[in-house]
Amino acid sequence: MAMLFGYRMYPTLKTPVFIVQYLFDEAQILANNLINQNKLMNYNGSNELLSKEQWEYLYKLGEKVKQTLDNVTAVFAPACLSHEVLLKKDWHAISVKGISLSQSIYCWENSFEGEKCISATNGSTSVKLIRPYGDAPIKARNQNKKSQKKKKKRKDKKKRRRRRKNRKRKNKNKKNKKNRKKNRKKKKRKGKGKGKGRKKNRSQRSAKNVSNCSHHLIEQCPLPQWCNSFCPTFRNQYNGKEIDFFKVFAASGMDSKAMAELLGVNTSTVNAMNANTISTLLLDTFRQKRPQ
Q1: Average of per-residue pLDDT across 224-241
Q2: Rounded CA gap, 112 and 89, in Å?
Q3: How does 137-151 read in b/e, with b if 16+ C-beta sit within 10 Å?
Q4: Strand 95-96 to strand 99-100: parallel, antiparallel, or no bridges (unpaired)?
Q5: Residues 69-89, buried b or exposed e (16+ Cβ, 10 A)?
């Protein structure tokens, strides 16, 4: 449901949310019967699988999804035809503009103010301060007090045991204490200069990583699987073979003029090409354009 109505729900959310969404959702496309199952069953890699109208539908679908995600603060949306993300073993390999999903989430987490995060995690509210409601039964409240007293006694006993053990350790180590102090001072003198260098380098590296961060990543690509070589492989459910979307497009009966505009060549050149040559040119054209 969130997949279909997420763009309506998003403005009402108060908690920060990171959205991961493929621009071409496989479940939605299959639910709409965009891919004819009989054609898919008999697809051999060169016959028509999608018509010109179906390709236009895919293009419009991708553009619509981009629009709904445009005002989202944190989003990772590759131009892939797939549905599941984290359930697939190679989810970490997917990237947009050279930034992986895990890197983008890291950037998003670091975009929040540190003080707000600290105050949220180190609040004054403690479990010990939580009490039963005023209208709770008196018996229940008394039982709660008794159990708290027992817990306190057990804790006090543990503390006393720890103190005894610590005293014994201190007495044993008194003789070697002076020597340890001397050794520590020597090490500090030796490592003083190195430590400064390490701290400086570490801060520079972290600053560099944060400056290159991006947590609003929507891939600008007209059709699925075209621009992103990291997209999950789309396979024919009947034979398990990979479906090459460049070959599918080349065999879809597109008019020569539209194909020539896509490839940046003249119409006569396109007319002289076969489907395999066109698919290879499409791959070279769009995969080279990807900003990664």
Answers
A1: 87
A2: 29
A3: eeeeeeeeeeeeeee
A4: antiparallel
A5: beebebbbbbbbbbbebeeee
Half-sphere exposure of 154 (CA within 13 A, CB side): 6
Q: How far is CA 280 from CA 100, 246, 253, in A?
A: 27, 7, 16
Task: Measure CA of the first residue to CA of the last residue in the chain; give whole Å.
Answer: 32
What confidence tens digit (pLDDT) does each residue in 9-33 have? 777 878 888 999 899 988 888 888 8
CB 18 within 8 A of CB 108: yes
What is the three-state SS of 228-276? CCCCCCCECCCCCCECCHHHHHHCCCCCHHHHHHHHCCCHHHHHCCCHH
For the stretch 159-208, pLDDT in tens is: 888 888 887 777 776 666 667 777 776 666 665 555 555 544 443 333 33
The β-bridge partners of 99 are 96
Structure tokens at 255: 């008019």
